[in-house]
User: What shape does this take?
Amino acid sequence: MGSLRELQERFTAHIRNPDHNPGPEGVEDRRLAIYRDLFFRNLSNFIAKSFPVVRKLYDDDAWDAFMREFYATHEFHTPLFPEIPREFLQYLQEGRDQRDDDPPFLLELAHYEWVEIALDLDEQDLDAVPADPDGNLLEGVPVLSPLAWPLAYNYPVHKIRPSFQPEAPSEAPTFLLVYRNRDDEVKFMELNAVTSRVVNLLKEDVGKTGLDVLNAVVAELNHPRPETLLEAGAEVLRDLAERDVILGTQQQ
Assistant: This one.
C-alpha cells in the first residue's frame, strides 16, 4: 500500500506541475501527456466558463500561464467539481500576488462572477422561508431573502468588459444587489447609497419594522424633508418585495 500511495502522489504531482515533478518510472511520457492535457484542459475550460469576463481579459497564452500556476500551486480543499470556482477565488484572495498583466480590479470582478455561481448552486428554497407575503412592509418586520446579497465594490464590476477596463477605483463605491428569485433566476440590480443602506439594515437588524429601518436611514442622513424620503423608502420596499428580495413580513 505504501508503494501504491507513493506512486499515486508522484503521478498527481507530475500531472499538476510536470516541469518540476518527473512522472512515475516505467510509464511512457506519451501516455502521461494524455492525462496532463486532459486534466489541465478540463480545469482551464471550467474556470473560463465560470468566470467568462475574467477570461476575456487575457489572451490565450496569458490565460494558459494563469491557469497553470493556479493548477500547480493552489492547495485544493474539496474534491467537488462545483466548488472549483470558490477555490479559484480563494487562490486570488490568498495565493496569487498581483502580476503586471493583472487588471487592478481582478479580485473584485472574480468575486462578482463567483457570487452568481454561488447563488445559482445554493440549495435553499425560498418557499420554505417563513414569511407572510401579504404583510404590511412598514408596520411589519420585513424578511430579507437569504438569497439576496448586498455588495459594494471599488470598481463598477458589472460594467467591465474588454473595451472597458478602469485603471483606478471609482470616486464612490459601486453598490450592487445580486439575488435569486422564486423562479430560480439569478438577477442583479445597481443600488444607490441610500437603498444599499436600507437593504443592509434589513439584513443586520432583523427585528425592526420597515418603518423603523426607514426612520433610521432618515436620521443618519439628517434629511431636510424626511416625509419625502419615507415615501421613497416605502416604494423601495415594495419594489424589493416584487423582486423576491423581500419575501414578506415575519409571521405572528
About this structure: Residues 98 and 240 are 38 Å apart (CA to CA).
